[in-house]
Give the backbone structure.
Amino acid sequence: MNLHRDGRQTALRYLGHAGFIAEHQGVRLLIDPWFYPAFLHSWFPHPDNRDLLDTVRGQDFDFLYISHAHEDHYDERVLRTLDRAITVIVPKYRSKVMVKRFSALGYENIVALDHKETFEVAPGFAVTMYLDTSHKEDSGLLLDLDGFRFLDLNDCNTPMSELPGDVDLLSAQYSGAMWYPNCYDFPPDVMSKKVDIVRGDHLDTLYRKLRITGAAAYLPSAGPACFLDPVLEPYNDRDATIFPHWEDVAEEFAEACPDVEVLRLFPGDTVRLGDTRVVERHPGARTSEDLAAYRERRRDEWSAFYDEPADPVTAEEIEAYFAKLQSWNKRFLGDFSKDIRLIADGRMWDVRLGRLAERFVIEGEEPYDPEYTLLLCPRTMRAIIEERVGWEEALLSMRVGLHREPDVFDLTFMSLLRYGNQPAQTMQMLRERQNTETIERDGLRMQRFCPHAGEDLAYATICEGVIECPRHHWKWEAATGKCVAGGTLPLRVQPLD
């Protein structure tokens, strides 16, 4: 094992989920510490890592890195306990959301890094930022520790053509962190098939990342969470959801990546890094979780959701909300139109979005069949309308039920909900759609970047007349560019002479 000049070893301590403490030559970097419930009191770390809170709260760190604004990474309750003089490393997003948030919390030293920008935190200790260069605001960080390269991708999907190589250890998500398909009301047989597809696609993307980065070892992280509110108990079913534990997919992973060493860490465990990797088990580390006991320990926290305001919203409030959302995103929406329905506590509002809207909201009538129906409880609805949470957080909470007819993903509509309160993201989506850069492959000239999430299609699979994106596995007819799986957006493609 490599020892440094002062005799101290390079170490990586796991805090659970996507949290780490990286230490090299006496310099300590805190990464994505998450301890308290996220997304409308629904997500909790699994297994419980609260016994490590004092390892973070009020402790001495030289640097802090927070990958993105989702509450299972940006735990504001924890961040309020840290020394404000710490140097914070954040991704340089178009919306500047991370800089704004840390400035509002009173942090004095903020370093915002752009895609592939490197910052030397100490001699022999450098970090390089990797962004999801599409409209999504996710990031990963490459740590170079005197030649040992640890890539923490957490939730981030940096385009595969932009990933670094010569990585020694990769940490990346293996389990889902999305509401699709489990929030939808699909029949059981349909749901089962969709879950299998999503889980398979997710692992396939992970395998590709490992091959491209050349990582010799993999550290499973960034999920899954667990749901302690009894109302959300079905989402703890690891077989019927996209939220498997590592043990549920370990065998499949070993078959696909037989030469990759797996470092299975639990909260509190430490791995010593160097020529070899040595795992030191934390004596009190939880390797599993009794959810009934965990639920009782955190009763005050998950039940706090039911203390939130639940006053029924009015049609006027809904109309004002969607009018504002649309006004912020006029250029993005263009000639878009969509009929949706909101249902909360037995009340129904039909909302007509886009250019065809004469009135935004019609209450208590059924003048047209909606293409999307969203079922919410009054507390969730009020939190959204009052802008205390966005649709992204509400959807991730699994407290929103969804139905769509036809069963086709509408990227524009869902992007309006998820990113509409950050127009910098929707404008980037518009730029992505207008990008004219092309590549030539397999007798085809086609647009280089996927119209869904900007993945570089240089890594697409082209087989039997179908082009498949390697990131979210949308598919198009190679002859026509028609989208046949995933959504509705076509791909610009033409055969070469």
Summary: Residues 188-213 form the longest helix (26 residues).
